[in-house]
Amino acid sequence: MDPKEQMQFFHEMFDSSLPRLGPGDHASTRKAMDIWLSAMPRREGGPNPTKLRILDLGCGNGTQTIQLANHLDGTILAVDNHQPYLDELKRRAEAAGVSEKIRTYLRDMCDLGLEDGSFDLIWSEGAIFVMGFRKGLETCHGLLAAGGGLALSELVWLRPDPPAECRQYFADVYPVIVDNDTNLATIRDCGFEVLGHFSPPESAWLECCYAPMEDRLQSLEKMYALDPERMKMIESIHMEIENYRKYSSYYGYMFYIMQRR
Ligand SMILES: C[S@@+](CC[C@H](N)C(=O)[O-])C[C@H]1O[C@@H](n2cnc3c(N)ncnc32)[C@H](O)[C@@H]1O
């Protein structure tokens, strides 16, 4: 398979019909929103809570986008680089009656072409890694108006002593993973005040993300049983899930909610 075919098959595995495309759940999105909203009265000259300009980076098929639209006043620009995800997001937004609040934007988040200072709130669940944590923070800092908020989730070590097998797994797939304190220091260094942070529960991985993914992989295994390259890609997702089942106490997502200083 050439890189284009690999990407096509990646998107076939992570199909737009899945409930969501990365670990997360509605309760965590809601909790992050509440942390940001409850800090709002403290902000002088901050965003107008009834006309928020929101950017959802790496929105995928829009699970969190719809939730933001349901709970916040304003407009959302939902960015992703895969059109089928944006099509599914639009379908879901129409079904939820919030389509007039959301505009989709097919774009590489590393080259957004958006005006500095033009957003009050930036959301990015499980997607800031695409730019890199620090680069993502710097980009968002530039895009936010004074006092604007940023909420994102990022993979972290939850314990300092992961077993060698788990350490090796991340050395191969995500060598830039660090601990929470290191991320908090980077966030402050990039000009943000931390409003709160928390780790979404294991169910956000196992029930909300991996269970539907495993169903999807099962049907793909039947279709591609005689295709070793695609079966190898399927196996790599099984390994990711297996690694989480074994070592979920050692790593997870951290949701960071912050305000531009
Ligand atoms: C782990 S998924 C998270 C999706 C969604 N936020 C969620 O939690 O379900 C990462 C998303 O980032 C998108 N993405 C990956 N690289 C991108 C890029 N360079 N520019 C824009 N979006 C990108 C993917 O298409 C995918 O939808």
Task: Explain how this protein is built.
The protein is of the alpha/beta class. The chain has a single domain, classed as Rossmann fold. 46% of the residues lie in helices and 22% in strands. The chain is built from 9 helices and 8 strands. The protein has helices at 3-13, 26-39, 63-71, 83-96, 133-143, 164-173, 180-189, 203-223, 228-247, and strands spanning 52-57, 74-80, 102-106, 119-125, 144-157, 178-179, 192-198, 251-260. Strands 1, 2, 3, 4, 5, 6, 7 and 8 form an 8-stranded mixed sheet that branches. Helix 2 (26-39) crosses helix 3 and helix 8 (203-223) packs antiparallel against helix 9. It is globular. The N and C termini lie far apart (47 Å). S-adenosylmethionine is lined by residues 20-22, 24, 58-60, 63-64, 79-82, 85, 108-110, 125-127, 130.
